[in-house]
Structures are given as structure tokens and as C-alpha cells.
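Progress note, project year one: complex with 6-O-phosphono-alpha-D-fructofuranose.
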Amino acid sequence: MKLEDALPQLGQENLLSIQSYLLAEEDKHPHATGRFTWILSAISLATKYIAARCRRARIEDVLGAMGSENVQGEEQQKLDVIANETLLACLGKRAGLAIVASEENEEPLILSCDGQERPYIALFDPLDGSSNLDTCGGVGTIFSILHHDRRADPIENAVRQKGVNQIAAGYVLYGPSTVLVLTTGRGVQMFVLDPSIGSFLLVDADVRIPQANKSYSINEAYTNSFPEGYRKYLSWAHDNGYSSRYAGAMVADVHRILMKGGVFLYPPTEKAPNGKLRLMYEANPMAMIIEQAGGKAYSGTMRTMEVEPEALHQRTSVVLGSSDEVDIVLSNLA
Ligand code: P6P
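Model obtained:
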């Protein structure tokens, strides 16, 4: 009997774990050293642990604030610290990484200066939208992988690269299920954590964002402080039958848009004149995913991944989602 004749009897199609997927992809590159795979594997391990801690947060009494602020001047949640330390612990031991940069750490962590052996940089927002935790709302981890630039002097400057330089990006959404969405520049793959076996299983090898959907995602409480073009767009959307959904956590909002289509906006406001979201470890990785899935991602009227970073924690405005929907927003900003 041939294998394919036997398989239906197993009744299991989704038996490709992220580890197997990554090793199969690595196998396509004869010069691959395995370091890149090893880094993504660390993210898989860390986020499985974070998912478990989020699920038990109220039981373990690790909800709520730490009573401290992070480098952004934002109140740190206990799970922000747990998630950050988990990712640092898992990634810090992986041979291929020269630098790790986190939203929760003011400076990048230099793991080694010998760029020879450590060709990669990892950046992440360990627990995006963590203020949603107390109300059991969606939260997520966002990550971005760059090649290490050994010419950078001082070495910390190596993290300041445009989004077009990313070699991988992704997020993990901790929601009713735990979903890992990944791109390595060849389309977008989606995995779902099967807690009964502790593996992320491939559920979609080529995620495509719908071309259009009459739905926008924005915090309308700040409408009066949005620049005129955004208010013009919102007024047009209200007159053209658009629906509105806003979770207050970028990962949850962007994942909904990746699945259903629509447009996510975080414009400049009086409180955040350059936008609130961070370019390096929120906007850029989400932009790579959305573009790889066939959508568009802009910061104002500029493609997000073309923005020249000046600082690790710099903020940017964001308009991303379905190609047709982003075009409509941009036509109001021009
Ligand atoms: P606002 C969460 O704090 C976050 O950084 C993103 O996840 C989210 O999209 C945004 O801020 C929400 O900001 O001002 O609407 O609460």
C-alpha cells in the first residue's frame, strides 16, 4: 500500500509542526547553517510558555500592574515582565543572535560582538496590548528578524535598519486559540497551537488578505485630534456603510484584518504626534506580514518598510490592511 493510500485512515491532515515546517524550509537552502531555524524555534518555545502563563494569569495572580513603568513610560503589567524575560531567556541562548532588542528594554542587549558566528538580530514586543489581560482580551507577541550589520559602530546601531531589510517577521495572538503567523519572505504561514501535544501545527501555508472589506479599525475617541485627511476618511466611511471593530491590541486587530480584510489605522494624535505604535518591532513586522499576504502598509503617505529608523523605540503612524482599503485612506491623506 502507498503512504498516501494509508493517510486518510489517520484522519489527521494538520500533522506538520512548525519545527518540521522550518526544517523542511531549511532543507531547501544547501548553505543553511540551522541558526535561523534555531532562532525561530526559540520564539516558538517562548510563546508556548507565554500562552500558558496568560491562560493561568488570574489563577496564579500575575494579572495587573507591576507598579513600574517601561522605557515607553507605560505602566508595566506583571505579564509584560514575564513575557519579556521568557523571550530573552530563550533567545539569549541561541547561537545565531548577535543582538536582541525589546520594547521593555531601553537599550539593545548585545549577546556578542563577533558578527562572524552571530549573523542575526531579533527585535520584539513581548506582550502587545497587555492592558487587555485583566479583561481576558486578545494580547500578542510581535517579532522581527534582521541580518546583523557588523559594520555598525557603535554595535547598537545595527538594529536601526529599514523594514525592507527584515528577513522574517511574525506575531503570536493569545486568544481563544494561540495562533502564530510567520513570514520569511515567501508568503505568510499560519500555525495554531495544539495544547494537547504542545505543538504549533500548520493550518495555512499561504495566507492571503482579502483585496477589500468595508471595515476599519481605529480608536475613534481621538477623532478630534486626527489630522484632517483621517477625519475626511472616517466621514466618508461612515457615509459608505463601513463597520468598525477595535480590540485595542494591535495583534488582535491586525489578525482580524489579515483574516477578513479591512484597514487598521493608528494616526498621529495630539498625545502622540508621530503616532503611538513603534516602528521597529510593531509597524515593520506587521507591514512585512501584510505585504507578503498581498496587502499594503503605510506610515502617513510613505510605505512603512521604507521609513529610515533613527531610534530603536521611535513611533510611527500606521495605515495597513487590504490593498483597496489602504488606497482609499491614502487618497484622503494626499
Ligand atoms: P489606544 C497597546 O497598548 C498598543 O500598543 C497596541 O497594541 C494598540 O493597537 C494600541 O496601543 C492601542 O492604543 O490609544 O487605542 O489604547
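The two ends are 63 Å apart (CA to CA).
The mean pLDDT is 93.
No further modelling is planned for this target in the current period.
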